[in-house]
Amino acid sequence: MTSKHGSRVYVQVLLEPNRGKLFLEDAEKLNKKPSALMRDIVYEYIKQVMPQQEACAAIKDKEVWQAAVQSRLDGRARNRANALKISDHSKQAS
């Protein structure tokens, strides 16, 4: 089952209990969250199976990430500017 989480693809994996326990133990030894370890494993698999497509996809993913970060920064700057305007108007009204 897959779905979207923002611009990302959300994939849920169910593991059998004993192998799942081994996976969780390994993630803990590596000091990684299980989801981060799983993501690394999937990305490495894609890199091995489709190296050229993976390289292009990685560049596009980086561009999407940078656009999202810039959008957040722009939103914060806009919110600060609006807060300053409201603050100035309140002081002038007093």
What would you note in describing this structure?
With 94 residues, the chain is mainly alpha-helical. It folds into two domains: 1-49; 52-94. 77% of the residues lie in helices and 9% in strands. It is built from three helices and two strands. The protein has helices at residues 17-29, 34-49, 51-93, and strands spanning 2-5, 8-11. A two-stranded antiparallel sheet has the order 1-2. Helix 2 (34-49) packs across helix 3. The longest helix is centred in the C-terminal third of the chain and has 43 residues, at 51-93. The radius of gyration is 22 Å and the shape is elongated. It starts with a strand and ends with a helix. The mean pLDDT is 88.
